[in-house]
Structures are given as C-alpha cells and as structure tokens.
Specification:
Helices cover about 45% and strands about 20% of the residues. By secondary structure, the chain is α+β, with helices and mostly antiparallel strands.
C-alpha cells in the first residue's frame, strides 16, 4: 500500500491509503489547531456537541437511523493531542463498497454525513442548542475529573504540567476544569467559527475506492468550507481532461451544491480569461447599448458624473480590449464548431 497525500482545497489535505483486503473502510476529518490553555476546553467540547445532530438529523435518534441506512456505519468524535496541536473532528467506520450488497455506494453518503456533522450542525437562532452544550459540558467535566481515578494517567498529566508548565505541551487535550465550566453556547459558537476558518483540515481515507472518487466525495461534502471554491476548480479541471464536450463536462461536475448556473459562469470566465481581479474591479465606463425616452433623460443627468460610451465607440482603456474579446467570443457557447469558417474564426482569437 502506497500512501498519497495532496491538497484538495485551500488548507485542506487528503491522505489516501488504498486497501482492498479490509471489509471496513475508514474516513476521518480532523481540524488541526494550536493547543492553548484558554481554548483547549472549547476544542474538547466542540465535537461532543456536534455529534448530537445536524440540521437534517437534529437528534441522536435520527442520526442513528441515518447511520443504520449505511449498514451500521459509525461516526465518533475525536479529541487528540499531537505535539503542541489539538486535533478535533470525527472518524467514520463504514462497510467498504466492495463488500456492499447490490453494488451500493456507501462512501459518498458517509462523507456527506461527516461533512454535515462538522459544517451543518443543528442550531437555533444561529447558535448551538443550549441543552446540548450544557449536557456535553457536564460530560466533559466528568471526563476531566475522572483522570484522578487512574493513577497512571494522573501521574502522566501532573508530570507534563510540572515539566512543561509554561509550554503548550503541558496543556491537557481536554483542557482544565475551570475553563470548561465557563463555556456556554455563545462562547462555543464564536470559538468554532474562528477555529474552523483559521485551522488546517486533515482528511484521511483507507479503503478500496479510487482516489479520484474519494476526492470528489470529500469536495462535495466539505463544499461549505471557506476556500472550497478552489476544490471546485480542481474538479472542473480534472473532468475537462476526461470529457469530450462542454455539456458532458458540466453534467459531470454538477451537484446539489454546485448549481448549473454557477458552473456556467465559471466555465465562461475561464474561456474569456477573466480573473477574480477582473470581476472585482470597477468598470471604468458605462457602455450604452440602447435607451428610451426615460433613459435619455437619465443619461443627460448622469453624463456629467459617469463616463459614457455608446455602442461601437472605442475607449482608451485596458478594459476596452477585454470588452472587444468578449464581444468576439459572444454566442460561441451556443454554437457548434462543425462549420469550417467558425473553427477558423476561433483559431484567430
């Protein structure tokens, strides 16, 4: 088995480990955030609250039913400490597709449910449910206090606290009792928003599915992440090498999250060579294509404040060169390249 690691979105990395001999596949998502004394308890509490439900499955019963539909898949929260980092997320265990009856695909719905738990949790008025936060905070406090009952764990914790008193490595992965007791739903929500936008996300898969399929499933599941549009570009680029026509390309990339109109705009921008800077820049003039009597009056009033250009009028601006290029290419997406004269026109552009 040869491990592959690649960046599939901005600060989102996939580690892929192919394996065909196991009946169960593994899929995990971990946010890697600096371990700090003031935020460690929030980091430990967050996955416990997130596991209580999503907007689609807002309670444990519905969430369990969704996993039962995946032949008893399990998704469990993880709170780990690696060096001076805290790893927060979930790990999923699901029947490998090669063993699923009737050729069912379990990777995509499992990835989707994993993404929902992290990015679309159940909320009320934009905040986590207070009853869920209070319940899981009590469980976290019990876990922190229970360390004293295990002499080996307690000795290890106290050793780190003394030897690394002023270092992040001396902080427990669960935080401390005082900080945990002060967490409420508003504080936890603010922490989660900041942590997810600033932290690296590490994805791991071990199973028989090809890496392209795993990447597509994860891009779809985590499309709500900041910077996820970069993953859409990668998917669009990969499919452009496989498909033989525009319609096939758009059909292959289209999904519930990626609408056809959004894909049309992306492909058109790529075709016209438009960059994000071009789209964000203010137009240096207003091109007048036509007007009626009411419009004529409005143009008289605006002529002293806005630079106006009539149809066919040239302007001394780099924007005019872009406008000419778009004008020459207008309508090409709705035409066929079968005609020799049309192919010749495209070649000259």
């Amino acid at each position: 088995m040869e491990k592959t690691r690649r960046e599939i979105m901005d600060r989102v990395y996939l580690t892929y480990l192919p394996a065909k001999k196991f009946k169960t596949g593994c899929l995990s998502a971990q946010f890697i955030t600096p371990l700090r004394r003031e935020t460690a308890s929030c980091g430990a509490l967050l996955p416990l609250v997130l596991q209580r439900g999503t907007m689609r499955c807002p309670d444990i019963q519905q969430l369990s039913a969704a996993m039962d539909q995946l032949y008893g898949a399990q998704i469990n929260p993880t709170i780990r400490k690696r060096a001076e980092c805290q790893c927060i997320g979930f790990v999923a265990s699901v029947m490998d597709d090669s063993f699923a009856p009737r050729g069912e695909k379990l990777l995509e719905p499992t990835a989707a449910l994993l993404g929902e738990l992290l990015l679309d949790p159940v909320t009320r008025n934009g905040r986590y449910l207070p009853e869920y936060v209070d319940s899981e905070r009590a469980n976290l406090l019990d876990s922190i206090r229970s360390v004293r009952n295990d002499k080996r764990d307690w000795a290890d914790l106290r050793l780190l606290q003394e030897m690394c008193r002023d270092e992040p490595y001396g902080v427990s992965r669960l935080g401390d009792e005082t900080a945990a007791a002060a967490i409420n739903n508003q504080k936890l929500h603010v922490y989660s928003q900041g942590m997810m936008s600033a932290s690296r996300l590490e994805l791991f898969y071990c199973g028989s599915a090809p890496i392209t399929r795993v990447e597509d499933a994860l891009l779809e599941a985590f499309a709500a992440l900041p910077g996820a549009s970069e993953g859409l570009w990668r998917k669009l680029l990969r499919e452009s090498r496989r498909q033989t026509g525009l319609e096939g390309l758009l059909t292959a990339v289209k999904s519930k999250r990626y609408t056809r109109s959004r894909l049309d705009r992306m492909v058109l921008c790529a075709f016209l060579g438009l960059t994000a800077e071009d789209l964000a820049a203010e137009a240096p003039y207003v091109r007048i294509l036509g007007f009626r009597d009411r419009g004529r009056q409005a143009l008289r009033e605006m002529s002293s404040r806005l630079p106006l250009a009539h149809a066919g009028q040239g302007m001394e601006s780099p924007y005019f060169a872009l406008e000419q290029r778009c004008e020459r290419l207008y309508g090409l997406f709705g035409q066929t390249l079968e005609a020799p004269e049309l192919r010749e026109r495209v070649a000259r552009l």
